[in-house]
Records
---
Amino acid sequence: MGDKALNPSRRHRVVIVGGGFGGVRAAKALKRLPVDVTLIDRNNHHLFQPLLYQVATGVLSPGQIAPALRTLFRGQDNVRVLMGEVERFDLERRVVHAVAQHEMEIEYDTLIVAAGATHSYFGNDDWAPDAPGMKTLDDANRVRSRILWAFELAEQAQTQEERDALLTFVVVGAGPTGVELAGQIAILARRVLKKEHRAIDTRAARVVLLDAAPSVLPPFPEKLRDHAEHDLRKLGVDVELGAMAVDIDEDGIDVRPTEGGETRRIPARTVLWAAGVQASPLATMLAEESGTTTDRAGRLLVRHDLTLPVHPEVFAIGDMVSRPGVPGVAQAAIQEGKYVAKVISARINQYPEPPTFAYKDKGTMATIGRTRAVAKVRGVKLTGQLAYYIWAFVHVAYLVGWGNRFEAVARWMWTIVARNRRERLISPTSLLTEQQVAEEIEASRERSRVTV
Amino acid sequence: MGDKALNPSRRHRVVIVGGGFGGVRAAKALKRLPVDVTLIDRNNHHLFQPLLYQVATGVLSPGQIAPALRTLFRGQDNVRVLMGEVERFDLERRVVHAVAQHEMEIEYDTLIVAAGATHSYFGNDDWAPDAPGMKTLDDANRVRSRILWAFELAEQAQTQEERDALLTFVVVGAGPTGVELAGQIAILARRVLKKEHRAIDTRAARVVLLDAAPSVLPPFPEKLRDHAEHDLRKLGVDVELGAMAVDIDEDGIDVRPTEGGETRRIPARTVLWAAGVQASPLATMLAEESGTTTDRAGRLLVRHDLTLPVHPEVFAIGDMVSRPGVPGVAQAAIQEGKYVAKVISARINQYPEPPTFAYKDKGTMATIGRTRAVAKVRGVKLTGQLAYYIWAFVHVAYLVGWGNRFEAVARWMWTIVARNRRERLISPTSLLTEQQVAEEIEASRERSRVTV
């Protein structure tokens, strides 16, 4: 560490980029240290991403899984929240460049970058408008509007062919998000909507879950994978494995067996993308600045203590980092955030630094449908309703803020009892594609820069 | 009525345009009649508009005040819900033309048009991007994002002048929506956010409530108007009466006394529009088709039984209709919806039709801030906390669907106890203006028409 960092005449400045699981946990763990923390995020909220699929299918409201970052740090005076987009790093001068209304230069003594990942179309970005992904709340609103809009249009379809395409929902990617999304769409069609439509039988809707891998939930043990697949099929989901997307347009998806063979067309007006991970572009930026590299998914290679080579004062954590043996899950980011706070504490107090970061696998879980799940907790494999209740307990325990927890439980109970969904809005705005929104926002920015 | 209408060989067809208070209540009241009801709305949800300001200020989630129309009629088999935009009426052929994915022709025997109203900029539509209104959920999301975004930018302001403009919120229009909105912004600034910002004192925010009229809440009795104004001032709202907006741009608003005098500039980065009512364009369309007229606000003149001249089979109700002595409130639309159902029942059963529609004033209410309100209920004037509890009781009683009611109460209680707001999202999409969204949606439609 440089002299500045240990200069006792002013407090050590920690800048954290990203208010996800890693960034928030690091900031929380710095509470009792004599440091000034600045937490920068492009959004004003934290996002409990594992429950995003519940917003996308109308169970929870956006606010229930996305507390304001300021609220999380209301009682922690050494944290300042700054809403803005990070544009670049100057590792030599130890400055982060961010922009909101103005360009901002934020100086740091220690930098923690926890900017996460987004979905990747594996080089087929032109699929994006017709196969929206599931990473942000805007994404979830968009997916919800698309699903419900398809049922509305099916009610008005003029041919059987059109009706079938509107009632076919293809989810690409059979990881936890894809599995949970497909299960919830099946329940929406088979139970929630069945008494509400007149011209169509919503139970006839076809939900296809597609993955190039030979099984669902690849990181889970085989027994649980089989169980999950069985539960999905019981819900009426067509699980199509060993099959990859080769083209997607507004009328459907072309699918080819991974082992080779003929390309097949699935006519479908709703294709949802739950595959592929691409690290935040900030990972590449940091790699270039520090002379290290990224992997195929754009994830940064870091040292064993999660710092950059040559820059021990810069940490990178969470999904934007490549860590062999560590899965891209919330739990990993949380443990890394805590670890980094410990390293900073040791440096400030001049204790020996804690040893190399080691990930402790506390378990993995995924829900399937209404009250079923598969879970591996400390080596024990669980399925069915028991797994669901453990899933619910763990997620509620981690939901930040007591109000959110209480409400989410009330909402889940109500959803199970009433077999309905409360958040069933199709908003004109959320039917816009990500690209349309991005273009308009860029246009607004240009305008306001010109007039200011 | 024509022969068709009374032809017993098939059921009488009622088409209702608009799923607001009037349309929904009419459809519900037709439950036990041998009629087939088609309810057309451009949205898939009903909207409990009197609580829209709570969405705009982060108290309730959109889903809590907007149940899906299909859910409302889940148990009523004679109602079919159709999502689409009504483009025109053919009163001679008794056909409604609507469009979603396709052009649709919907035949009726009886037509009820209840398409409501939107806000009006009194001929200054160029103010729209800088002074968003409050009529739809998209509007409310936009207002919420703008308010919270202003506080975020104030945290980063580089001059005192910039900070002051960001912390000035001008609400134009001191009817119930304007009063409630101004009160909630004041509470947001003075209580909710005060511990969450570091670089600014949010309590210094200035909330201006502007109206050309000489008092707030013009339809209320004088005693209640004075009380409301007093409560608003106690919350720290600058109530500026007898003052009209003469220009609005992105940096502020020009204001002139109604009695004449000098124009004054209020630098403000957030101006919200809660003034002016403009009937749905369908009112003008109906007027042209039936040879009747509209008033200055574009509201249709109807006969005493709410039918159109020459077309006794066409009813128009709610905010799109000009009815001397009847205020533009939910209660009036509800009573009209019920009345029209009674007329239809009488015609079908060949009973004498009920006499001319007469509005019964059951009372008016408005909340001011956290737990205060003014109310006039059956002639009794109430103020303060008692009025608030009556307000809450009545609104909860009218919230459609038991689940919503239970949740809304839990949410309000929690909001009051925790002094926080759960729905505090700034979404990039919702920062787009109404016009930007409309243009992009139009562009999408054009594209899909070309490719289909």
---
Amino acid sequence: MDLWYTENHQEDTKFSIKVQEHIHSEKSEFQQIDFFRSETFGTFFTLDGYMMVTEKDEFIYHDMITHVSMAVNPNIKKVLIIGGGDGGTAREVLRYPGVEVVDMVEIDERVVRLCQQYLPLTASKLDQDNRLTLYFEDGLKFVQEADEGYYDLILVDSTDPIGPGEGLFTVAFYNNCKRVLSEEGILINQHESPYYASYAHEMKRAHSKIKETFPISKVYQFHMPTYPSGHWLFGFASKKYDPIKDIKADEWNKLGIETKYYNTDLHVGCFMLPTYVKKQLDNEE
Amino acid sequence: MDLWYTENHQEDTKFSIKVQEHIHSEKSEFQQIDFFRSETFGTFFTLDGYMMVTEKDEFIYHDMITHVSMAVNPNIKKVLIIGGGDGGTAREVLRYPGVEVVDMVEIDERVVRLCQQYLPLTASKLDQDNRLTLYFEDGLKFVQEADEGYYDLILVDSTDPIGPGEGLFTVAFYNNCKRVLSEEGILINQHESPYYASYAHEMKRAHSKIKETFPISKVYQFHMPTYPSGHWLFGFASKKYDPIKDIKADEWNKLGIETKYYNTDLHVGCFMLPTYVKKQLDNEE
């Protein structure tokens, strides 16, 4: 028997992975959760059928959501992670000895529990570090109620802006992020993709909102082969730091944090976007 | 009826596009050639079932194979294109008024003729510019017989190193490229991909050969969504030019060549590779 997982990247474009085992399937309060095992990608899981994390390329996503901000401000102490139930983002943040507080707000506790069970590669640090506090709450509500100026860094590790992730792409959310960030504060958000029309639409919407909220708002790219088109983006927004001019490359490299994707040259390179992406972000096309 | 084109990126990984029409199918002397039409990608064609060119993202590949070298040496006059039967590389090269000679050596005349018929977006310049000469020959043989030091630029726009493209990944070929290049000479080659094991293997093999042949040998990356993993590479090799230190950004920008993917910031950025790719290229993993 052949068993294939398929994601429709567009209505007429499919990406499929042969499945060795459908490890787990359940409908939580918020979404459909499935875990699979494949030869090429190892264990991977999907939410509502959309690819979230594979063992083969999770290092790319988690390197890029975390280390860019930490190299701009290696003195970050208080971090808020919104989403990120697989634990990979928390794992990377917790590698910094200077980080004192990590609050992780994941709406769906089942994602965390299942990743702890099936994806120890990403989730194993979630119960091993007393700097981390897990909140199973709505991220939008959490930032509404958080103290002004408390966090140095917010990492929005969300799904696409449909389903539970929708509120994390709103002006209300971005405004609250700005409010709870310190003057040194940096916001990194999952910024969708420029290639397929439906994703590019969400990318433009998100960027126009963040651009209005933060004085500095840039976008950086990376190669994420298991996401639609493989061309994925994060947003970097801050009150005072420019991600390129203000990189502390020497300071970051002295920390000795070994990474498989990120490095401080790539840090600069990843903000150099293709012309068609720049035009989309500037609303010129 | 649903008709889907599928390419196996690995044995257990498939990419599929819904086909509106299978426009053409033939077996040439060298390979199986198929043309299709799809809603998202427009017209696309495959050789031996492997995706070559789609109307949607050909600009990415052709921008990146051409403009990086031209921005390093805007005085390039004599260009050799090996492969590139779709005509997209020739189209981009011929946009430079300073280019005097373009010799294009494609082993399979049928690819050129069919692209002229079905892909005018890439092929339409192939019979419109008297600076261009088409040779339907083996590229390996052509460079063996070409004059020493004649070309300023060689663009190897080849298929993967199986089938007709195999000879273009050999030491004999790279040595002949070096011989027929001028002292200002630059070689750009299709450099495969770092993500899936089978492609990474070919990437490493190609790089180790070129590194031994040319004093300067770098690799740059781009996002090519219809190729396996979407993470694709070109090699930049030369006798004296460093692709970053020697970029003539102002001079290139003054030419006023409009591009959808390439720009002189991206030029610098695209050489900043992920750590795991650098390690593979340095034979450290």
